[in-house]
Amino acid sequence: MAALFSSPPTEGKPEVPKWIPPEPTKEALDWANLHTIELALLDSPDPQVVDNLVQLTKTAIKEDGFLYLTNYGISLDQLHRQFNLAQYLHRNISAGDKERLLWNPQSGTFAGFKRRLGWKREAGDYDGIEQFNFYRPQFEDPESNVPECIKPFMDEIIAFCEYLTYSVNRRLLKLLSRILELPDDYLWDNVQSHEWPLGDGYFRHALFYPLLGEDKERRKGVRMYGHTDYGSTTLLFSVPVTALHIWSKHNKWQPVKYNPGALVVNLGEALEIISGGHFKATKHKVTATPEDQEHCERLSLVQFNASIGDMRLTPAVASPLLQREGFVPSQGIFQQYKKLMDAGVPVPTNKEWRDIQIATNSQIAPESRPGGIKEINGVKYGVDKFFGVEVALPR
To answer: What is the average pLDDT across 101-111?
Structure first.
């Protein structure tokens, strides 16, 4: 039985105002129909219950690549404490810390503070998205690398990330390993970067300010353009402000509905390649909110879990599933990697792959991408190319 999350004490720390979740939209939207995985069932003594859970997860991954994760060991009160801290950071970070800790994506990471002026270190057009991203340096040396206002609470943030890494994500990877019919810790041991507290991954406090008027018009209602994540798994906590959309099995963008306390999980490109295309790196984007939420701020907590940096990803051919059913070469990153592998060309390491995308291609409009617009099966895609690998994402 997996242990429940135990948060460090709050006594003696500065008072932190409570985050008040906005009201969910009342609009009738074309919601994505995501499956819900109750993670605690993995500990059931009944083999049939566990097998049913594995099969449901397999269906969710095959159909959507996105799923809701519930009953994973963190209470709603504990989760809201983390939202309190994220709100506190954005409300109290000083102008000096914003400059001192300003990020530099050209370095290959999003570490530090992102202002509301685009996805480069240099100021660009207003996008209304503010972030603070915690990587290994922020955890190892918070005295130098995090805002002054959040330093008293770093023990809580670290404990939270540790639990997400070593309990939630590890159990999730166990489920995915079972789908591949491999040993329970195959993906954890061979793919996942998990040095303290979350390996080469990172944790994000994001705040989306309302995007109105000319700014909304200029961005055509899109806050973050369609993309896939390049790591293993992404753990995003469901929030009431509707903005996240996935490219669904119906070949269209559909919004993800608020599920209080749930984790919204999507799989990254690393697992699509390892699985030989059986797992999908899910395409998703963040859009303008419905009209009844257009003046709401959207506070977001996300943990991006990374694959081992110096590893060159190839399919796990030892998987009985792959041996029995072969590869699934549908449009996606695995199809493009396979072209390189078939040609005998080395694929990039995981670190090379994520660094170049962060450094050169963060949130560029599809029509401005180097490969322009390409039509695939009647759908228009924006196209990039890195290390000979073509990346095409729906507009």
So the answer is: 96
